[in-house]
């Protein structure tokens, strides 16, 4: 990014200044107060050398319709260095906070959400940590549920924590990236996040179920309008990230959560870094070839192009070959034009080929959103749910919690 990143001194004021420099709409001072334990020698811009693996726990699956309003009206100023994937004239998205919380409730979540939450049930457990469903009673009297993510792996260090939080905060107003309420570092050295709960699993979960229902038949994994919708939502999230001068660096179906209303949301931002950081990160099978051979990058290469390659693989999985398709996906990577099945519509095939093209010719997120495959999509209704895209899906809703069922907490 254009701005140089200051070394943190462990004080909330220093992080507050960092967040202001990132044009964050959310109350950066509240977030800064939750990060008082940050190492004084760490930098938000540092890239962790720790190995990355799939730590996606849970999410909700949905379908939305995409919209491209005129301006990021919630931002105070422009970043000095625009992303390589979006020109200064590009349309920019205007989003409201996806939480719908009043200022008092949001401030309470940020300052006390992790300390005052009540565990309801376990959602998942892995080598990195655990995810629980928790309830929080807000000052307004509203009861909400959220996902508490606790990471205790030695592979997840301070720099990686700062990078994940920074990515979540940077995307706080984008409905196509999972929302974070607050975070902290505990006295025991664990890293905790309180996240918006996505009850419908991941896109990867959904694709596996669809493959089982397809029973080996040579046909699209889902209807074209459904592919169009999911792809548009994920690309909208990538466009938002790239226009901020960042790359997600771990795009894959397992890192797309499906929200309560069916909206796909990018998650796991611990790999996110500036587009100028071009070293390998993320999941090997989704990494672009130029990350392994620098000679393939070309002049002015930036890591947002690697995101688009991973998105191309994800789109191929959504179309015909989930989880590799018994080796068929590798053939698509080698020559997508020749090896995509004949039942794939021409426009969709062209879009996938454009995302898997060599780095200098690969589509950007902005170019992909303008592709003819998306003609007729109701962009202005993307955030509203599956029905706005012309199809219905079975959705799980977050559990409701009655106040009478909750334990009494001391003030």
Automatic annotation (TrEMBL):
Residue ranges annotated for the Protein kinase domain, each copy included: 117-374
PROSITE patterns the UniProt entry points to: PROTEIN_KINASE_DOM
GO molecular function per UniProt: ATP binding; MAP kinase kinase activity
Keywords of the record: ATP-binding, Kinase, Nucleotide-binding, Transferase
Superkingdom, taxonomy of origin: Eukaryota
Family annotation (InterPro entries): Kinase-like_dom_sf, Prot_kinase_dom
EC number(s) reported in the record: 2.7.12.2
Compositional bias (Low complexity): 81-91
Positions of the UniProt region annotated as Disordered: 75-95
Pfam families the UniProt entry points to: Pkinase (PF00069)
PANTHER family (UniProt xref): DUAL SPECIFICITY MITOGEN-ACTIVATED PROTEIN KINASE KINASE 5, DUAL SPECIFICITY MITOGEN-ACTIVATED PROTEIN KINASE KINASE 5-RELATED
UniProt protein name: mitogen-activated protein kinase kinase
Taxonomic source organism: Edaphochlamys debaryana
Lineage of source species: Eukaryota, Viridiplantae, Chlorophyta, core chlorophytes, Chlorophyceae
